[in-house]
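May I ask for a single protein's sequence together with how it folds?
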Amino acid sequence: MNFEASVDKATSFSESSGMDQSGALEQDKALASQIALGDVDAWDRFFDRYSPWVYRFAYWHLRCNREDAEDLCSDILMTAAQCMKQYDSAKGILDVWLHGVARHRLARFCRGRRIELSLIPDIDHPSSNNDTERISEFAETVHTRDIVNRTLANLPERQANVLIGKYVEGYSMEELARMSETTPKAIESLLVRARSAFRSAFNTLMNDTRRGEKNG
């Protein structure tokens, strides 16, 4: 299986991906300080820069539910604005800090609504009808998604994180590199190894599942 085919290939969200680390940190520090002081223009720049990614993050993790995604997106952005004084550029770029806020608010949101989180979101069920073929396809899709989640859970953390970061959360190679404080070339190398490991583990789990079904 090709991992890319199982998730959405989203575009990158950072305007500073072409910048060097120190330049990005200085800009992020200035932006955060302006927002903390109530600068409306700074907030607008922050919103324009990050809201597409934040919505995409919420949409994927909330099983493609647009209403919930909009609620969580607003919650993440407003929480980030209110907590901007806590941002410390010495600990990394604003992208990384916001990602931490997003994950924290996602977990809180899901606890509040009793939503079980998975690495890869659920797929919408087909409308009720007598279309046996569509229902069969849906069952196969759900089965594949579950195998994908199990495979990711069994991979080394760095490999699972780079796959999810690239193909689920939509980070570019440059963004992943900056977040990991390494180079795009190193991320590319890690991604190659992660895809290979994923493919091997996925095929093993899939074959084991099929053998179990035959023997069951």
In short: Helices lie at 21-36, 40-61, 66-82, 94-113, 132-154, 157-167, 173-180, 184-215. Residues 184-215 form the longest helix (32 residues).
